[in-house]
Structure prediction request, 303 residues.
Amino acid sequence: MTRNTNAPTEAGASRGRLETTTASVAPLDGALWLVRHGFPVFPCDHPALTRCAGLHKTCDGSRGKHPAVAFTRAWTLDERRVHETFARGLRNPAVAVGACSGPDGTRLVVVDSDRPGAIEDVASARGEQWPATMRVWTAKGHHDYLWAPAALKLGNGLGALQGQFEGDVRAGNAYVIGPGSLHASGVLYEVDDPGRPPALAPPWLLDALVTKPTFAPQRARWRDASRQASRSARGLVAFVLDSRPGDRNNRLFWAACRAAEDAQDGREDARGELLAAAVQAGLDEREALATIRSAYQRTGATA
Prediction:
């Protein structure tokens, strides 16, 4: 469950990969470690399952990340329940962020960097230093766990960090995939230093998260782009253009699935417009094209 220090650390490297024979024991280890450290746990889908175990009606392709229970109510800190839950079959452990309390009534906030060092770069650009805190390595970057005052009522918005930070923030009614989980790519989520607890969130970060972003100029461009799209595709194009870093690929996949279904029903095929919108939203063209192709294949269309 702790990070393999001999593994490469570059983005996209095969850090923490598991053999199939050992993947089945990792989720329970991770879930037990979490509850023993005060983090409420619940089960999510596991990518080794033949079908997604999430509660949703249609899987968007992000295997291993969908809650298998109503996580705002079904989380637990009970080790016995953890053993029972993860003995039923492969499930990834996840943390119910909003249910987690820290010192002096603080609440958990998780900063999800889409690449190693993304949040450190933001701090450096502001003349600040990122604190040493509990970190869980993910497939692309890392989750940094922090404590924040409950009175701030933080959510999943980036505030003034919108457009500056390559990642997301999770607080309040939210969850994150925990250590011991297996990503669809084969990378294991690992705790960097098991002895390091969450630090207090730095004031500059909290100030940025509660400051409203300035969207007007960019949203004006988005409205122009969506007007140029065909009538049937305007809503999907606007949905992709309105994506945040860290969520753009998932939103593109969902929109492409809907576009493929529309095309199968005889409406205009919007894949070209979605590709253009994805690139404008900040995705790499080749990555966006691969996502669209995957969505069309999933729905039985061709791309």
